[in-house]
């Protein structure tokens, strides 16, 4: 062990930092930092160079690869242990860095702590050398797991105080704040003390002697779990129980008698070794461990399946160094049959039913795939799109309860051009409702004066009609805001939605390749494939024709909507490619429902419901026409003259069921058609649709699961950001350069500002995520923080950081008049 004197002004031995040992022993010219497995000299500048610096990580990954982790492969790629270094940049500062970004990963939960190979409590194991039998080893023969990671070189077992930490998911700050409390947000972070003074905030500091031993706990002043010591003072530290430094004096004076909270039995880490120094390679990205080992370390928590603890026998007393420790054997008992829940949260891994899906390679594992992300981002962008009203004086700034009108279609050359479907000029706008702040779609019917409000009874029926394949009608109002008498129908807005007409019938040539793909005029069609198998490009069954599965997917959705509409005693009346919205890959919604019921309301005829059956029959015929046009890939297919040819193409290219579907809907029938008659034609294809919908739901749900954890970390970072280096507290020593926030400031550097041996920024998302997770969970694992001037070293556990963090944030909330943090 390096002597205390040697510890002064020496660069830290990186070999020692990385492995916890150094083959040169006392002869090494560099500092063997006594307390933790330094993995790299934290530096804002150049890290120390020494003859051990050949150590590099065995993994060539960097943060980018963390993003690019793939899934969808049959097997998770193996990364063999002990493989030769690949030259990965090393970290600038080392704390114990574990595998998966989850607290406890690799550091050992109670099952491995202080247990010998037979699961017996064996405190001696704390002193075993690296590689000793029974130790958990990482891929470099380094110790893993708390029993083997002793930063104090063999500290005796500590008493296990009740530190008041939650034992369940509360520890994750996931609980919903009590809204009834005076400060619901503050409830999330209950201050440990009412006011935060410097001394109150610093029970975590202590002297650190040159041998890396904590001063022995005494009844007057049990050893704190964090240590801070300027290097120049390390030489003068007289060893165990040495006088505290000037800075530490005040802190030591205020130390409570309460043992370090991370020893409390209430935590999942309760039986963990009080000091962890896993001595992992500094340049081991957590990502590597994540790939090579299960992210879930077996938990041994004192929660049994029956909710019962094992019977406690006598409390054990142990006198070490003049201090009596009390602990119960149950704290160490293995409970293989017990339900073990973590008291932290993290994204564990892909569930196998998703992981084994064949998806694109290089799909990010911890963030959503680009395709989905872009889709969502586009929708967000479209929802927020605005238009400069000064250049568009035609668009009023406000219409009824709506503002921020944004036209959804380019201005027509002839603004008075009538819609073929409605017989009036129409315009669509996206607009924001002033009352609820939501974005809706306004469809203005120009120059329509509502003469009879009786038709509003039908509107009320439509407003109550909810179906996932119908664009919901919200309200109807008349307005003169456009300078005329207009009636406006307000619908739900589906950003990036397009019409079926645009998606499928706006290809080159107005006829959508009708003649070519049908080959009716000239006889032979170059795209016709009588076998019906194999397509030229992707999903196309034949060039120009949609795959039958897609057609049935549309049929299922459209018929489902019609079924609900007809069952409600209504008729769609807008079954038309220009009035069917499509978004995502194949999601359909019937648009503009209810408009014709108002526009064609006949005073003499009474309610449109009187002729509803007629309109329902029309719906079915139009359904057949829309689907026929899709199947033949042209709207020309539905013309009477082309019908025979169209049916021949269907017979050649698609199943008999699809042909029967068209024959049923588009030829004369002896009895009224019913949407229910279509169901047998769909048959088992319905299951196919259901299956794919459920599969998609699974995939999306998995994406959501990732974002839950990402959101949690975002909240954590937000809180950290509010605490770190607040300018208004710049001159307040309690806030910036000393005390709790100083630790958090250094932790921020530890998270984000490390550099490699060349002084270049070391960026590894896996490291950031892992550290944040450990902070959130309050892991007892220790890390080493170094001041920016590199004169001070602070050894602190995540648990202490978490407590400081919560105190600091809670205090911020208390002093804030307008706290709003959810
Ligand atoms: N509820 C809605 N949500 C999102 N976009 C919509 C909605 N309703 C319509 N749109 C979009 O507004 C645009 C115009 O729709 P519209 O129904 O007027 O189509 P159109 O082809 O212009 O029909 P018409 O010939 O009857 O005017 C289309 O691009 C459509 O995607």
TrEMBL record:
Keywords: ATP-binding, Coiled coil, Cytoplasm, Metal-binding, mRNA processing, Nucleotide-binding, Zinc, Zinc-finger
InterPro entries documented for this protein: Kinase-like_dom_sf, PAN3, Pan3_CK, Prot_kinase_dom, Znf_CCCH, Znf_CCCH_sf
BP term (GO), one: positive regulation of cytoplasmic mRNA processing body assembly
ZnF bounds (C3H1-type): 7-35
Cellular compartment(s): Cytoplasm, P-body; Nucleus
Domain C3H1-type positions: 7-35
The keyword Methyltransferase appears for this protein: no
UniProt keyword Cytoplasm, yes or no: yes
Positions in coiled-coil regions: 684-722
Example of a GO cellular component annotation carried by this entry: PAN complex
Biased composition (Polar residues): 247-257
Residues binding ATP, per UniProt: 443, 492-499, 578-579
The Protein kinase domain, residue ranges: 414-687
Biased segments, Low complexity type: 270-286
GO MF, one annotated term: poly(A) binding
Cleaved signal peptide residues: none
Region (Disordered): 136-165, 218-286
Residue ranges of the region described as Knob domain: 723-822
Family: Belongs to the protein kinase superfamily. PAN3 family.
PANTHER family tied to this protein: DEADENYLATION COMPLEX SUBUNIT PAN3 (PTHR12272), PAN2-PAN3 DEADENYLATION COMPLEX SUBUNIT PAN3 (PTHR12272:SF11)
Function per UniProt: Enhances PAN2 deadenylase activity and has an extensive effect on mRNA stability, generally enhancing mRNA decay across the transcriptome by multiple pathways, including the AU-rich element (ARE)-mediated pathway, microRNA-mediated pathway and the nonsense-mediated pathway (NMD). Its activity is required for efficient P-body formation. May be involved in regulating mRNAs of genes involved in cell cycle progression and cell proliferation. Regulatory subunit of the poly(A)-nuclease (PAN) deadenylation complex, one of two cytoplasmic mRNA deadenylases involved in general and miRNA-mediated mRNA turnover. PAN specifically shortens poly(A) tails of RNA and the activity is stimulated by poly(A)-binding protein (PABP). PAN deadenylation is followed by rapid degradation of the shortened mRNA tails by the CCR4-NOT complex.
Comment, domains: The pseudokinase domain, the coiled-coil (CC), and C-terminal knob domain (CK) form a structural unit (PKC) that forms an extensive high-affinity interaction surface for PAN2.
Quaternary structure annotation from Swiss-Prot or TrEMBL: Homodimer. Forms a heterotrimer with a catalytic subunit PAN2 to form the poly(A)-nuclease (PAN) deadenylation complex. Interacts (via PAM-2 motif) with poly(A)-binding protein (via PABC domain), conferring substrate specificity of the enzyme complex.
Protein name: PAN2-PAN3 deadenylation complex subunit PAN3
Native species: Pinctada imbricata (Atlantic pearl-oyster)
């Amino acid at each position: 062990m390096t002597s205390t004197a040697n510890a002064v002004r020496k660069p830290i031995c990186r070999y020692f930092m990385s492995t916890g040992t150094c083959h040169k022993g006392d002869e090494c010219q560099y500092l063997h930092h006594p307390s933790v497995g330094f993995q790299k000299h934290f530096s804002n500048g150049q890290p120390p160079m020494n003859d051990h610096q050949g150590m590099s990580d065995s993994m060539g990954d960097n943060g980018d690869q963390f993003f690019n982790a793939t899934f969808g492969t049959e097997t998770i790629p193996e990364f063999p242990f002990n493989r030769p270094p690949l030259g990965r940049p090393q970290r600038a500062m080392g704390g114990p860095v574990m595998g998966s970004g989850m607290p406890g990963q690799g550091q050992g939960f109670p099952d491995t702590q202080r247990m010998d190979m037979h699961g017996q409590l064996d405190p001696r194991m704390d002193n075993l050398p690296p590689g000793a039998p029974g130790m958990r080893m990482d891929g470099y023969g380094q110790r893993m797991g708390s029993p083997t990671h002793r930063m104090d070189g063999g500290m005796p077992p500590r008493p296990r105080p009740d530190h008041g930490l939650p034992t369940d998911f509360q520890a994750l700050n996931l609980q919903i704040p009590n809204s009834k409390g005076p400060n619901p947000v503050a409830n999330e972070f209950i201050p440990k003390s009412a006011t935060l003074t410097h001394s109150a905030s610093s029970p975590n500091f202590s002297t650190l002697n040159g041998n890396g031993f904590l001063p022995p706990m005494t009844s007057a002043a049990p050893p704190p779990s964090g240590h801070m010591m300027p290097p120049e003072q390390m030489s003068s530290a007289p060893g165990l129980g040495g006088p505290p430094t000037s800075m530490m004096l005040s802190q030591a004076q205020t130390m409570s008698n309460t043992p370090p909270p991370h020893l409390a039995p209430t935590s999942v880490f309760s039986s963990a070794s009080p000091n962890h120094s896993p001595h992992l390679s500094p340049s081991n990205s957590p990502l590597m461990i994540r790939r090579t080992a299960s992210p879930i370390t077996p938990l041994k928590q004192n929660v049994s399946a029956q909710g019962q603890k094992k019977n406690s026998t006598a409390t054990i007393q142990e006198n070490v160094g003049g201090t009596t420790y009390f602990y119960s054997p149950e704290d160490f008992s293995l409970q293989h049959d017990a339900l073990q829940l973590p008291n932290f949260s993290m994204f564990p891994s892909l569930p196998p039913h998703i992981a084994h899906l064949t998806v694109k390679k290089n799909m990010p594992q911890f963030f959503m795939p680009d395709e989905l992300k872009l889709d969502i981002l586009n929708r967000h962008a479209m929802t927020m799109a605005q238009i400069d009203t000064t250049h568009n004086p035609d668009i009023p700034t406000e219409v009824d309860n709506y503002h921020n009108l944004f036209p959804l279609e380019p201005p027509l050359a002839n603004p008075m051009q009538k819609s073929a479907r409605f017989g009036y000029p129409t315009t669509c706008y996206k607009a924001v409702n002033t009352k609820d702040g939501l974005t809706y779609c306004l469809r203005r019917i120009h120059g329509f004066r509502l003469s009879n409000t009786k038709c509003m009874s039908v509107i009320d029926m439509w407003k109550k009609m909810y179906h996932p394949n119908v664009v919901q009608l919200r309200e109807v109002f008349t307005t003169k805001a456009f300078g005329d008498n207009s009636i406006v129908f307000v619908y739900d807005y589906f950003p990036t939605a397009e019409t079926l007409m645009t998606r499928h019938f706006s290809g080159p040539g107005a006829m959508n390749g009708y003649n070519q793909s049908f080959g009716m005029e000239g006889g032979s069609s170059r795209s016709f494939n009588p076998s019906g198998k194999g397509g030229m490009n992707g999903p196309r069954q034949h060039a120009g024709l949609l795959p039958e599965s897609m057609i049935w997917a549309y049929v299922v959705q459209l018929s489902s909507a019609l079924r609900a509409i007809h069952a409600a005693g209504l008729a769609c009346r807008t079954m038309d490619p220009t009035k069917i919205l499509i978004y995502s890959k194949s999601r359909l919604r019937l648009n503009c429902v209810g408009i014709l019921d108002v526009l064609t309301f006949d005073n003499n005829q009474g309610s449109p419901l009187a002729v509803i059956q007629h309109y329902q029959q029309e719906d079915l015929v139009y359904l057949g026409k829309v689907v026929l046009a899709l199947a033949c890939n042209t709207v020309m297919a539905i013309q009477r003259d082309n019908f025979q040819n169209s049916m021949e193409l269907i017979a050649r290219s698609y199943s008999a069921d699809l042909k029967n579907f068209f024959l049923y809907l588009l030829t004369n029938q002896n009895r009224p058609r019913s949407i229910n008659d279509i169901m047998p034609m769909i048959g088992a294809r319905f299951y196919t649709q259901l299956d794919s919908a459920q599969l998609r739901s699974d995939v999306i749900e998995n994406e959501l699961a990732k974002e839950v954890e990402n959101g949690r970390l975002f909240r954590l970072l937000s809180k950290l950001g509010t605490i770190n280096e607040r300018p208004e507290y710049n001159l307040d020593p309690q806030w910036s350069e000393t005390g709790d926030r100083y630790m958090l400031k250094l932790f921020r550097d530890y998270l984000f500002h490390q550099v490699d041996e060349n002084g270049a920024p070391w960026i590894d998302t896996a490291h950031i995520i892992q550290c944040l997770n450990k902070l959130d969970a309050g892991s007892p694992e220790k890390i080493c923080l170094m001041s920016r001037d590199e004169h001070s070293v602070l050894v602190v556990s995540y648990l202490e950081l978490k407590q400081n963090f919560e105190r600091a944030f809670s205090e911020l909330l208390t002093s804030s008049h307008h706290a709003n943090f959810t």
